[in-house]
Amino acid sequence: MARRWAATLADTKGVTLPLEELEPLLLEIAHDAVDHAGSGHGGALHRFTALYAASPMGIALAGPDGEIVEANLALGQLLGCSPNRLRGRHITDLGSTDHDVSRLKAGLEQVRNGRERYQERMLLDHTEDGQLWTDVTLARLPGDRPGSVYPVLMVSDANELHLLQERLLHQNVHDPLTGLPNASSFTTKLEAALGAGARDDIALIYLDVDGFKVVNDGLGAGVGDQVLRGVAGKLSAVFTGHHDGFVARLSGDGFAVLLRGELTATEVVELVERALEDLNEPIYLGGHGIGVSASAGIVVRAAVEDGGAELLRAAEIALHRAKEAGKAQWMLFDPELDARDRGRYQLGAVIAGALENGEFSLVYQPTVNLADPDRLAAVNAGLRWNHPEKGELGSDEFYPLAQTTGMTVPLGRWLLAESLAATARWRARFGAAAPDVCVQLPTRLAIDPDLVLLVKEQLDKHELPPNALRLCTDRASVLDPRGEVLDSFAVLSDLGTQLVLTITGSADLELIPRHRLPVHHVILSGAVVDALDSDAPPEPALRHLTQLVTRARELKLRVGAEGVRTHEQAARLRQLGVLAARGPFVTDSATGDEVDELIARHPAR
């Protein structure tokens, strides 16, 4: 258009146009320009209006003061009202809470001061449904006058997305079965409680459902899950509301409680006892009244004393002690006991190295014939640890630790190998006067599937007849559900090895006929022997012992005793029919050289 009018004005054919001719020409130019501009503006306005009306996003156009002058249908539907009801309201009035109103005000102010766009997720009011999570954008549109600004509000529905995010967040920090906070959430809570500047007392309680496997396996996992929900509910009812109580499910049937504030051990113990008492009340499911018990480990201390790891460790130790003490009870963490236990655990951790470094040796206890105490019936071999710092340690000081660390079998193998090597040496030196060796099998070695192979290899290695070895076991090994104990003993008996059973009463003795144990000897032990170590033994004890010896003879067993302290006690045992005994009345123990001298003085038959 500009080029056309420029050409027209330029083509004057060399003459100057008079004013009356130029004026119509300029008016024609102006009208043409207006028509051209109007047609473009009208098209743009039409397209904007159509977009505004059809947009799925809620849009509100506002005046410079923030008052809504126009709202589209989408915004009305989003907020549950007609667009007409939105006109005249201020943008900030749409906020559902004071916090949301403040954020809308701040957004308007920033847009007026030059910010192109302000975006936030916030709650707006819905006419019928109350609060609605939305994503809000405030932007600026230029006004009619230079420098003027018209705010525009754009709103999209974020309610489902927000609720999904909240649900995912909840699942991330909560146990899906019980609804309690999970282990991750508990760790976060504990770290916050122990954070910098913490001055509260802290109580950490670990609880473990006793025998939950019985419920789960006996009645099914579905019932087990309901029981765990019941446990969670009872724990929450007791602890929530006391000292900022926070209850969590850690895993399986394990729960934890965190308390903060001014605490005493007495207060915490009272809450724990109440919880354990509530858990004992049956939960009725499917016609079954299911009662559960729980064990609890408790730690109460100032928050500034230790970090979270040390606190958790203390609670685990206290819980472990509660279970060891018989379950269904609580145990308060004892720092002094823990210090002693740490020393024991450190001892247990180095057993493997001590065995490799030759720190273990054999110690012997002779068994003599009571009818002829100058003759040996057998020599019992045991282990002694010559610790470089703690000195000589007896088997009762390290065997329980070996059981925990898995060193029982290596120690038992070493004991068997060294005992048979010593037996071969005695036979070479003393011939027929050499005694049999008796080895007490730890339970873990007694149930080992390689026991028969191990015994045969060692007998063959030292060229010993099987009857030179007596293997001693006890009730716990015989009844242990693991392994093939009875089969192993049957094979060992067939080889010619002598089997010995330690008994403390009639129930132990009756294991022999019940399980057809190929046992040749029984050794009386414990209270049944101790009862005779007095000037006037109780009549019931004498009667009991007499019955044991009589029953053993009926089973064609040879009867011995261990732990015999005095010659008088040995004499009473002999009168009752006991054939052999060992204990302090002969000697407490003997080393390798000492036992050789003992054998020389007390030759076997």
TrEMBL record:
Superkingdom to which the source organism belongs: Bacteria
SMART domains listed in its UniProt record: EAL, GGDEF, PAS
Every GGDEF domain range: 200-335
InterPro entries: Biofilm_reg_signaling, EAL_dom, EAL_sf, GGDEF_dom, Nucleotide_cyclase, PAS, PAS-like_dom_sf, PAS_4
SUPFAM superfamilies associated with the record: EAL domain-like (SSF141868), Nucleotide cyclase (SSF55073), PYP-like sensor domain (PAS domain) (SSF55785)
NCBIfam families: GGDEF, sensory_box
Protein name per UniProt: Diguanylate cyclase
